[in-house]
Sequence to fold (512 residues):
Amino acid sequence: MTTAIIITAIVAAAVGILAYILIHKILLRNRGEAIIREAEAKGEAIKKDKIFQAKEKFMQLKSEHETYINEKNLAIQQAENKIKQREMALNQQASELGRKQKETETIKENLKVQMDIVTKKAEEYDKLRGEAIVKLEEVAKMTAEEAKAQLVETMKAEAKSEAQTYINDVMDNARLTATKEAKRIVINTIQRIAPETAIENAVTVFNIESDEIKGRIIGREGRNIRALESAAGVELVVDDTPEAILISAFDPVRREVARLALHQLVTDGRIHPARIEEVVTKVKKQLDEEILETGKRTCIDLGVHGLNSELVRLIGRMKYRSSYGQNLLQHSREVANLCATMAAELGLNVKAAKRAGLLHDIGKVCEEEPELPHALMGMKIAEKYKEKPEICNAIGAHHEEIEMETLIAPIVMVGDAISGARPGARREVIESYIRRLKDMEGIALAHPGVTKTYAIQAGRELRVIVGAEQVSDAQCEELSASIARQIQEEMVYPGQVKITVIRETRSVAIAK
Fold:
């Protein structure tokens, strides 16, 4: 019984295991088929996606290729159009050239005809000239060679006389202008270097309200004044002059810095070394900005553009320089306008002339290489900042220290002379100026037959009016030479004086 149960159980277990195995195999097969179907579905989806992406990429490449082809076609079309236009232009030029060639041939033919006529006229002239020479020799009883030799000797004598007169005029002019030129050189040298010399051109007066402020400016044991002198690079002279302090320095910009700093310190009331250094630094910065702004404003007013910023700054520094008491910036502006006017009258480049006139004295405000003359120094600065060769030559040649290479150079030289020579432009005692004019008129008026005299053009020309009854035309020449000789011997004057004698004949009748 027990054995039967055991066998039955074993059989049942075996059947159950077999059933489990069959069912498991069936389930595994179904699951595998599901996985395969899912994998096939995913593969199909990936395949479709890749095909779609490939199609998109193909369309994109196709579009880009079509765009490229269109651009190339457009470029080819434009090139063809340009070639056609050039071909048309060349055809027009060829036709124009043919027309001009025909005109040239016509002109050549006309010239040939005219040359033939001129040749015939020349032959006739030579023939008539030979006949005239023969007749003249018969009348004068002298051959042409003898007359020519006599004429040459006469002209040699006249040339020697005129040359000697010219040499005497040049020597006299050099003697008269030597002192003035020496003063100009000394003043320019003092302003461009730092000698231990204080003259009128190197002193600025700072006015104060009361002498009590002098003590505050000096400070305890002089520390304030020493701090100001060290910071500004000047020398302060505090003496018995009432309500004034002298600021001495060779550089006008330094004097201006010291003056402005003193003004701010006195106005503020706080005067001590730390405050002095702060104010001087601030004033230097403000003055540099003002100098640059002055240069820019000057260039804008004159219409001079494209200058290097360093040249603009040097133009601004001209405001604080003087030459014979004439402000250098105002002088340069006058020269620029004069040069522009003369260039316009002569048909030259007005802008170039104005630019050269403005920059002609730029060497006077440069702090480099003081051993060079200011004209050559200005030319060197202009070359450094890429100015045109014609501008550089005009700057360097305006005192004839180098050869003039362009027509602008003599214009700048003349403009500089006109600006400096006009009455009142440069420092000259007005009493001596008026006395010189009166003495000049008095010399001419003392001659017999002179009725009126007028010194004009700042004493460079003397008009002498004589009576027609007392002085003849021949005597006018002798009178002008006599007056010129007397003025040359008795007076000292700059440049030359032109003597013009005017004789006028008047006939008066009265109808009754």
Summary: The radius of gyration is 50 Å. The beta strands are 203-207, 235-237, 244-248, 322-323, 326-327, 450-456, 461-467, 498-504. The CA atoms of residues 44 and 101 lie 84 Å apart.
